Amino acid sequence: MNIKKDNIFGFFLWFGLVSLILSPSVSTVFSLPRLDTSLMPFYLLLSLSLIFLYKLERTLWNFLVYFLLLISFAFLSLVLNFYFPAFIDVCFFSFFLFLFLFTALYTRQNTIVKIRLIIFVLSFLIMMGFFSEVLLGIQLVNGNDQLEVSEGAFKGFFFNTNDQAVVSTSLCAAISFFYIINESRTKTRMFGYILLIFLGVVIFVSASRAALLGYLLTVLLTLFLNSGKLMKIGYISIFSFFSIFIFNKNLLIPLLNFLSGFSWLERSIDRFQLALFSLDEDNSIGYRTEIYQKFFENAKVLWLGYGPRNYDSYFKEYPLSYSLGYTNPHSFFIEIYLAFGIFALIIFLLFLLRSCNFIMLSKLMMSQKIFYFFTIILFSWLVWIPSSILRLPLVWYPIFLILIYAISVDQIVIQDSKGKKSDKAFI
């Protein structure tokens, strides 16, 4: 039997993606250890073996170098602070390497079709988990007692609603890029908008104010980039109108009171009202602010980090009020510095800059380039929302998918150019 290499790459990728989403629920239902966590060292070993044994395109190496250096410093942080849970956390964090590499190899042919399928399946799984809890009252994942279905917190296959909102918002960016922007077929665009609407419901009910803002900006930019001049003016006018509505308490409070009458929206509305009218009473804002303030008050250079979820030594001089901040600093930029050190942070930032430079010089359309730069900004915004993204690799995925697509477009253009030159030579 002749098995294509793409099918092998696809098998591992699909298994990794699906198990990543479903494992928390399978673990809850069957009282088993998480399958995805157990497999993370295998995924890392598989990725490293493939990198050094399989011939890869030079353009892939332009990014793989940054990933390998970042993962190297992540493991170096374990030298002075080794303990097995930290090792597993680093392996889980390193799953982004597997995502990038196997997606790139799997989608080398029929790139846009396979990427759209990946986005749809991930979106469908998230919506299936969310609406199963909303409509059927099924608790899919056990976690914090305050984040149970009985408390109006619908988190689907995730441990908390913030993680669900962040991943959903990230996928919305991917949907906009691959289904809507510069797409000539109406059916494909409409299908993309339908996915955006359903994931918008997931994000709204998840009650993450910052994720909802990211979602709204994603939708607005999508509409703006995918419309003519008159429609652009129309969208700006509509947005201006609703902006006035949002900041008018006399109009907004009756609407929020009406929506809070629906039991499945009550928690979300309460959190939005807290942010709009009683921000000083929002413990979430105060807690995060303290972490960021104490981080700078305790500022010191970390050549190597403390390893994952082990940051109490950093805050010794000015300790935190809540011990959770010693393991989950609610900012990936801070977390990568505390866990893996200053070199890891610099490498991460250099990757973001390198990717922007690559996209700018690529053969993508200008609207696609603009949206990629927005995706980087969105990523930088979203990683401040969850307590940690060391185990939330799907946040990276829109960036990876667009980079892989841009590489594919560039290669097609180069091949077409070579073909035309050979045709001229033949003539």
Task: Please tell me about this protein's structure.
By secondary structure, the chain is mostly helical. It contains 17 helices and no strands. It has helices at residues 5-30, 35-53, 58-80, 84-93, 95-106, 111-136, 161-180, 186-206, 209-225, 229-246, 249-259, 266-277, 283-297, 332-340, 342-361, 366-382, 397-426. α3 packs antiparallel against α15 (342-361) and α8 runs antiparallel to α9 (209-225). The chain is globular, with a radius of gyration of 22 Å. 37% of the residues are buried.
- Approximately how much beta-strand content do the residues carry? under 5%
Q: What oligomeric state do the depicted chains represent?
A: single chain
Helical run tally? 17
Poorly predicted runs are none
Shape: globular
For the largest beta-sheet, the strand count, sense and barrel status come to: none
Write the layout of secondary structure elements.
Layout: H1 5-30, H2 35-53, H3 58-80, H4 84-93, H5 95-106, H6 111-136, H7 161-180, H8 186-206, H9 209-225, H10 229-246, H11 249-259, H12 266-277, H13 283-297, H14 332-340, H15 342-361, H16 366-382, H17 397-426
Helix pairs in contact: 1-2, 1-5, 1-6, 2-5, 3-4, 3-5, 3-15, 5-17, 6-7, 6-8, 7-8, 7-9, 7-16, 7-17, 8-9, 9-10, 9-16, 14-15, 15-16
Which descriptors would you attach to this protein?
427 residues; 72% helix; mainly alpha
